[in-house]
Write the structure tokens for this entry.
Amino acid sequence: MTKSKNIRQTTLASKVSCSGIGLHSGSQVNLTIYPATVNTGIVFRRTDVSADIAVVPARYDVVSETRLGTTIRNKHGVTVATIEHLMAAIWGVGLDNAVVELDGPEVPIMDGSSEPFVFMLECVGLKQLAAPRMVLRVLKTIEVRDGESVARIQPNEEGDEGCIIGIEIQFNNPVINRQASHYDFREVTFKQTLSRARTFGFEHEVAALRQMGLALGGSLENAIVVGKEAILNEDGLRYQDEFVRHKALDCLGDLYLAGCHIDARFTFVRPGHAINNKLLRALFADETAYVMAPAGKEFELALAVAATAVAAYA
Ligand SMILES: [Zn+2]
């Protein structure tokens, strides 16, 4: 992603591991990301269930729950929850193919951001594979709405490549209020602009979530907790507008469930996991709205030259 775009598919140079607690379960999870072959995409594999039902692809069409994070579920009913911050990191570093193995039902929350995942992925680095990266190019505008939320995807200008996001959030809380921003990933990197932005929750909701058996692993170590007039975290915010940055991070993680990079302009107003998923479902439901093409103009040129050469011998 960003300035130096890969035109070939990538995988990890070697496996890498981390462990932490699940935000909702509160239990310890061990996670290892393995290199994978061309066209594998990102797949999750649970090691705590029998091997024949353990694989859950990171795809928009198996998203089963979006209320407190994004959960995917395979046809055997095996789920993986809270995948979005890891998916955002995987998108952010430009990783196309990997198997994410974990021994529980939820990706560890780490510090509530994508930074620990970016760090571990960068520690081992990427390896290029001998196949072009396929990129989804959007051909027409698709918009979905849900109450006051809007999610829109528009074609890039002619000849433009890359991902641009405009986003606005609005909370009836003086600490957050309205925050709006714009990220052009041809100019900025995910790592610099968004990766450190933490998830957040409201102090008055914490007790209710705990009563429902949720957010059991949540703490000031892995979330910003917003009170009536100030945040409870003593060290303050990592970015002055950390809330909107985190929402943008969530959007990117959810969008990477397309199974590929998307060249387009996105607009989000009061986004959430539900509408992010609805946008992808609407996009893929309309076959005239997109085309899959190899990344990079040089690659297209090379393919055209190769096709001409083949034609000359035909
Ligand atoms: Zn999040």
Remarks:
- Helices lie at 84-93, 115-124, 190-193, 203-211, 242-255, 273-285, 297-313.
- The mean pLDDT is 92.
- The domain at 8-296 is CATH 3.30.1700.10 (lpxc deacetylase, domain 1).
